[in-house]
Amino acid sequence: MHAKAHKISDRSPAGDTGRIRDEFRMLLLCARTRVDPQQQAQIQALARGQLDWEFILGKAYWHSLAPMLYRNLSKVCADLVPPEIMARFESEYMGVAKRNLVLTAELIKVLRILESGGITAVPYKGPTLAALAYGDVALRKFCDLDVVIRPCDIIEAKSLLVSHGYQWRPFKGQVTGASEARNFHFWNEYSFIHPDNNATIDLHWRISPRRFPFDIDLDELWKHLETAQLLGHDIDVFPAEYLLLFLCVHGTKDLWWKRIGWICDIAEQLSSNPDTDWQRCLELATRTGTRRTLLLGPALARKLLGTPLPDPVCDWIRTDSTVQKLVEYVCHRMFDEESMRDRILEKQRFRIRARERFRDRIPVYRHLVSAPLIKLFVPSRKDIELIELPGAPFVLYYLVRPFRLAKRLWSRALHGNDTPTG
Questions:
Q1: Beta strand 189-194 with 167-168: parallel, antiparallel or unpaired?
Q2: What is the 8-class DSSP label of residue 122?
Q3: Full-model pTM
Q4: Sequence ranges of the domains in the chain
Q5: H/E element holding 408?
Q6: What is the pLDDT of residues 304-315, one digit of tens each?
Q7: Cα–Cα dist 112/237, whole Å
Q8: How far lies 121's CA from each of 157, 190, 202, 235, in Å?
Q9: Rounded to whole angstroms, how far apart are CA atoms 115 and 268?
Q10: DSSP letter string over 209-220?
Q11: Region 50-75: what's the mean pLDDT?
Q12: CATH class of 22-366
């Protein structure tokens, strides 16, 4: 079923934004590749008011919206923006465009290296999303290159990249050699960097980490890959329905409010794929236990950016009260400066509420128990560097760690030392 999109009712472009400050309203109005005449008039009206342009500039950087703000402000109301602010927006835009082109060329190079070893690699987010959803690699800021490969190819892929000068940057706890296979159970990606241009490449063999599981059969998915063009090169891409779900999973595991740009990704993906097969999306999400996760992304795009959704999708959102509560929660966190401070257990509570099946919540509960124990006992690189135990079994560092943390906490209690724990 290809549900036909409908125009949402006559509302402000960001839903109920009357309670947020005008600077955020400006951000939301400009967070789109296409601005209609009504939105242009609203941008101009806001620009004539008393705006804190430094605040807008800072939030545009934080929410990865600076390129689109520059393009829309320069087209709609350049004469109403302080010249020094426009100059800084232009400088950021040019810097992002230049860096994005470098990273796009690097992505194509990486894909060709992997292809030479018979490895099918599928990029998502980054340059691919910028080109296919936004229509311009300069309009979406990205810092690394995310590529998905099958688990059976990760060892060969790592060897290929290292042989071409890329440096593997193992995360804390990742090992090599005979025990390397354990990495594939506990982690979902390997990270590499090229020393010549500092390009970071993340090779994923799972879409999300174990603490927010997303069980999808990559071997089955590989049968549905499509072909697209990136800077004149053919690349493999995920079908629109799969990519939409992957973007929703990414946003939900990191709690959405961190980046309006992530919600903009959803809006632009939907806008560039008006024939999205929503029934296929829902079936995939139901099968993987991510129905609520899938609905949360479009619900936020509709609420904040006025993204039109098909009637059936609006009905699905309306009938899940938890989705509606999560949308309100995200909006409150995003625009309330006091609420933006991270609170203990907040991320885990959000992830639990975003999953409809109990079995998918179990890894979150497990993480709640294991994370403090890991923090307390698993030695960090700093522990090993500061306290040398030559010839002693490595297991002794598991005893060093709690004593070192206790000493630091005692020092902070006595002297007010704010040195963070490591």
A1: antiparallel
A2: E
A3: 0.84
A4: 22-366, 380-422
A5: helix 397-415
A6: 999 999 999 999
A7: 14
A8: 9, 14, 11, 9
A9: 29
A10: -TTS-----HHH
A11: 96
A12: alpha beta
